[in-house]
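ok trying again, last paste got cut off:
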Amino acid sequence: MPACIALALITGSWTSHAQIRADKDNSESNYEPELLTIVDLIQEGKLQHALSEANQHVVKYPKSKLGHLLKADILQAMSVELDTIGQNVSPDSEPLLKLKHQLKNRWESRGKDTRNLFPASLIDMGSHPHVLVADMSAGRLFLYQNRNEQPYLVKDYYMSVGSAGFGKEVEGDNKTPVGVYSIYKHIKSDELPDLYGEGAFPVDYPNRFDRSLKRTGYGIWLHGTPSNTYARAPWASEGCFVLSNDDLLDIENYIDIESRTPVVLTDKIEWVNADTLNQEKQKYLRILQTWKSDWESLDTEIYAKHYSQENFNFGSNNFSTWLARKREVNDGKTFVQVDLDIESLFVYPGADDMFLVRYTQHYLSNNYSGKASKEQYWKRDESGTWKIVYEG
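nice, full thing came through this time. structure:
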């Protein structure tokens, strides 16, 4: 009986993935479920069956380095008891460590059922049909659909991030940024080097918040893998977030360049239930409603209290100048009516007590009417009061 390979990789109890595999969407690639089936069979000591599955897997996915490694381990285990995956490879081998990291991420993510849980950052998908949410610690990219103003998990994918991890600060640090971004472009594979696989979707890093913190760098893309491999190690890019080519071609069907599909890159997702998510949504909508009502009241002093004086527009503008202008404008108004169409509202990852809302603003007054796309960053101050730290 071979030693338990997966448990040599992952501490904790072993749970069969059979039910989880059965629940997966039939349209999704079978790459990951097949790998985990092989591990399951090794766990159960069914080496001949595991070898048969591994043979089929490497024929179907000849670039699967994990598949070839598992096959080699099965053959080894048929004659000698196996203590760990890749027993015949140097334990300090960087390629082996990367493969172990990949298998660990895939295994642990499949053991979690998040169908009735939601990312706490995903407050309101607004007008977007789909949103991508990344858990970079787990190496997963989750695809959510907007169903009746509630997020619905369509599927999730194994994902690789920067070789130095995440939390980008400066150009060349090989880290993937943490924050809220938008996909604004699609670059086809025939316009790119082989490194980017079946294409790329650039995101708008650095955003307004990044620039306020003097973060540098550029060229953060969601893209595919080189032609000589199926999937990259969990930490392997220069800062991009990367899917297998099969998964990139699949997720391409849900990305809308025109509406700029949002991407929420989190260091680690905080999962909450539906009731908690809805309670949080109502809380943030009340904050916006109070700000809107105070604007419509034409009481400039009450309205201005919603804005941070100390960090007004991330410190780039003079609050007193702005306030004087607001007083002047309101003196000429007999009424103001403001309507908001929420495009998205997300708790901002990697920042304490901050949320980002994007909306279409419909403004009507006695002497002006207009429509504009806006965004606001709100942050809770030391007294616990929510203040606008950027509006534009």
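cool. Confidence is low (pLDDT under 50) at residues 1-28. The CA atoms of residues 306 and 387 lie 5 Å apart.
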